[in-house]
Queue: 2 jobs
Job 1
Amino acid sequence: MKRIATLALALGTAMLMTSIGHAEQKTFKIWWFEEPTTAQGIVWKKALEEFKAKHPDIDVSFEQKTFQQLQASGGMILNSDQAPDVLEYNKGNATAGLVASQGLLTNLDAYVKKEGWDKILNEGDFVLSRYDEKGIYGSGPVWGVSVFGEYVSCFYNIDMFEKAGLKPPTTLEEWVSDMEAFKQKGLTPLALGAIDTSGQHLLASLAYTKADDAWIQNYQGLKAPLDGAPYRYAAQTLVDWVSKGYISKDSTGMKDPDAALLFTSGKAPMYVSGTWNLGTFASTIKDFKWGQFVIPTPKYSVGSTGNLWVVPKGSKNPDLAAEWISLTLSPKYQAELGNAGGVPIAADLSAITNPIGKNAAAVFQQISDKSGLGFYPDWPVPGYYDVLNQKDTGLFQGSLTAEQFVEEIKQVYDDAQENQ
């Protein structure tokens, strides 16, 4: 009996130690949707390895998501027990603002001071981190932190431009002249994913050529019914460009990756999209020189500080989440981001040796310094991303006139503005 009791005691002790061991093993979950070949994807993977090495006692679990997944189901995920401890989330009223107003995110104000983020980022960098009780950006608590910048530009094939005797345009008239010159040579000048984000980004860029400070503030802040004049101009311009052959009619059914492939394969001299392509283009384009120019507008560019690191309300490890954010905001990884071809938000430019990243960071700073970040066209209204994509498609396909396009997007916008 004594031997049995001893065995039972030993077995119980072993089970207790196993139980304690399991109790001490934390799981820390990180999600992001940046593709592995993008600058963020490359650099955050390196940071993830350092984070794991620093916390050998923690099961650090990473999951690759897609932008579309979180755009469509983010609120549902954040309101469930499946949410991670920290994740990348799209900024703006319709996304981060919406889930913040629904009480699904952790207020990060205390961490801003504790981690010293306010010493690294200026108040302008926090504009899209703050949302009020209605989910409108610009005031209220900090609900997320961006560690990079982004803007929409026109990527161009330098070799094709030089062969055609053309220079990057500095005015809208020069841009049209360049497109006409390529068209005369039998080339479709502009690759475009008309049913995807680049369609609405080009539309917004053209609208911003007619937008002043008041229009941008009213539009993004839902402060007044939509003044459709800038969009009417943009919509008619796109219709004209399709009819003139500057944009292929085939683009009406094309997504961004297909349009990007036309550019990276050397078949199209220009492609409108965002700086999130920089890392991928840097690693995949080997047969020609390429660059980017900011779409000529008087002041505003489509762009912003980047997507946010947010901490779900149900996060079990908010302190670790804050540590992760600080790591990606550190000088080391900000410089790495620039050297991977990304747009760091708080890097020392002298530490960036990659000319693509150095140029991108400098251009972002140039836009930011003149307060020229006009943000994205889908931000003001929840669900507006899908509305604009759908109406853009009708515009490119010819089933909507410029007037009809404005009427339909204005109705959705004005309903949201009236009911906020």
Note: The radius of gyration is 24 Å.
Job 2
Amino acid sequence: MTHATPSVGRVTAAELDFNPLVSPHREDPHLFYRAARAHPPRMSPTLGAYMVTRYADLRTVIDDPATYSSAPAVPKIYANAPEVVEVLRRGNVPETNAVVNEDEPAHTPIRRVFDAGFTGPRVRAMLPTMHETADALIDAFPDGRADLVGDYAVPFVQTVISAIIGFPAEDTAQIQVWTDDQTTLWNPLAPVEAHLASAERMGEYTRYLQALIDERRARPREDLLSDLIHGANGYPGLPDEYTQCIVRGAARVAGFDTTRDAITSTMYAVLADPSIRERVLADPVKTIPRATEEVLRRDAPHRGLFRITTRDTTLGGTDLPAGTPLLLLFGSGNRDETVFPDPDAVDLDRPNVREHLAFGRGLHVCPGAPMARAEIRVALEHLMRRLPGMSLAPGYEPVYIASYFFRGLESLDVVW
């Protein structure tokens, strides 16, 4: 078991705001989370929503979709400034609800089609690609040193998610540019100049996706694009604009950033503690899944999703009128000391670790969770088998990306 170094500093009631893009929350959001859990849900002026940080309150919201609607779960790109919206309209960029924004009864027919891309058979079918990609990337490492973010996790997950969706492998670099544009347009804290630059490129992305949709309509394959177009699990296919939005967001953004960050966060936890590293080397089949779940709990790669109240209610002692926006901070709930004792520790034997909220829960639990777990397992197995002497580079200090939605390392420098 390893213990995290407590954050230095004190948070007063006046500082109970949250901005994950700036210090100190960028480096350690748990400074805010720990302080916020001592209070009922409160409004963050920066984000314009009440922060839900306690595990019990998070469960209350997740388990009551009738009271807490998912309609605002992720922001709309057409909610940006008028000049940004004008650029999007000029490019004929479609926007529907994302599947995670749907409440019942609209949710189930869309979700069941989307689920088809991540079934057990689809996961098993992707395993050869995962193994081949991991070995090829390790073969290409510079002698004795690598950055496990840029040299490994990024291209590994890009290759896998492109194959799942049905993107041509040769288009990966361009698709990543467009994916980053989607994330930027979702980020209300990004400057308008960044929104404009991203919006300019989204028209090209729209035309690219439509060409793929048209091709799959005529010639379906075993990929997510074909599922969305032709239907699955007894439900009909989706309109083209809905397919575009699912592919842009729920599939490509969520399927890339979270898995990339989970791979590198888990490797960092393994390499940072010699006792964990030795357990993984001694029994990788048993220990890697344990390490994965514990790090998903401790360092959830996705911060959380928005909700809005449909009626007057009370949550954790705070009265919330109908129409109140909430941000569910899963990373805070995963370190709630009332549920996970010694929450900042990496404990490979934690008995209730699978109760974490890293993949959400209930109606909107992440459909790609089985695929993500397989990717993390394969990526770590190959690293530990091929490079058992690997260690953190001398002087390495973790630096976390400035991201509205995601929590991950900018780099992970290792030597062997």
Note: The chain has a mean pLDDT of 93.
